[in-house]
Design a protein that fits this description.
- The chain has a single domain, classed as Beta-lactamase (3-Layer(aba) Sandwich), CATH 3.40.710.10.
- It is about 25% helix and about 20% strand.
- It has 3 helices and 3 strands; from the N terminus they run ααβββα.
- The termini are far apart.
């Protein structure tokens, strides 16, 4: 159920499976819809330009996706072009994500979500 078209309402209820169905429809009908070209590109444009987990080679330029986040959620849905040239559709929906606050006395490390995303999308890019 979608109660707010902006995607900012916590009352929106859409499963990853439903989001994948929407993404698959867009992908299959993009010759008519022309939506995929409007998606941000990893390391190059929009909300993915500076997304640390995917902004550098080899993932730079390989992902077109829409991001979405509210406090405690971290979502991404789109397409990934693999090293072999295959197009993979993906939906990432993470909820109840509340990382601990950074301790300034300790050396800086990548947040867990950044490490997770980098490993996930790199493995998909490389073909497992």
């Amino acid at each position: 159920m979608i109660v707010d078209g902006s995607g900012l309402s916590r009352n929106n209820r859409m499963t990853a499976h439903q989001m994948m169905a929407v993404l698959r429809y867009i992908y299959r009908h993009d010759d008519m819809l022309k939506l995929l070209a409007t998606l941000p590109v990893s390391g190059e444009s929009g909300t993915l330009r500076y997304r640390q987990s995917i902004r550098k080679a080899p993932l730079q330029g390989q992902i077109r996706a829409k991001s979405g986040s509210l406090y405690g959620t971290y979502n991404l849905a789109g397409l990934l072009e693999t090293r072999s040239g295959e197009t993979l559709l993906f939906v990432q929906m993470i909820s109840n994500y509340f990382p601990p606050e950074r301790d300034e006395a300790l050396p800086a490390i990548a947040p867990p979500i950044e490490t997770f995303e980098h490993k996930l999308y790199r493995s998909l890019y490389e073909g497992f």
